[in-house]
Amino acid sequence: MSDEVRVEKRDGWRKLVMNRPDKLNAANEAMLRSLLQALHDAEADRSCRALLLTGEGRGFCSGQELGPSVMPGQADLGAVAALHHRFVHRLREVPLPVVCAVNGVAAGAGASYALACDIVLAGRSAKFVQAFVKIGLVPDSGASFFLPRLIGEARARALMMLGEAIDAERAAAWGMIWRMVEDAELSAEAEKLAAHLATQATEALAAMKRMFLASATNTLQGQLDLEQDLQQAAGRSAAYAEGVRAFMEKRPPVFGGRA
Questions:
Q1: Among 45, 143, 152, 259, which residue's beta carbon has the most beta carbons within 10 A?
Q2: Dist CA 116 CA 179 (whole Å)
């Protein structure tokens, strides 16, 4: 794994830090491949039960780095986008809850990385921007999927067509993210949340991710059928047995690790 992603192993969870602070953590191929490897390694580690994604320094991620690989007339932007899209897919599909701490700017693909996570916190100074239109491109990395569903089509169209930034307070008010916190509290709050999720019923959380992913395209009946199947499976789990036992004994549940 390259130095452009730092992985910090904690008790039951991992912190993935995009580590190109001099570039506002702009994404290049090495960083994206390292992020993909970090997700693979976390999933393979049965002791890892949650993830936290954030950026080093004063920015979360400023999107694709503008360099020789993306210059007009020289680049296949479809191939460039494909690597970003692999990462977005993995964030959605990895069977672990993913917390995101947005520190500073989240632009272009960087904004989509945040929106692909399960629970997003942003510091007060954070800004989300879809700047593709300013260089004659269209949104990618799932922006045209996430934003209309999170904030409605009217707002999504305006953000993408105007390329205007919105701050964390408005993003929270619009339902784009879970909540805004003060900058000085962001890291501690996000780590506390990841540590909490690492103690919960991991398989149930993974099943929820499957449900949310399917709901984007499912019919009501299809979603009801999926809920029934996943609930039946959850009802046979050790986590359910412990949850009910703890409820009856009037104590907090102590869930085991991943099955």
A1: 143
A2: 15
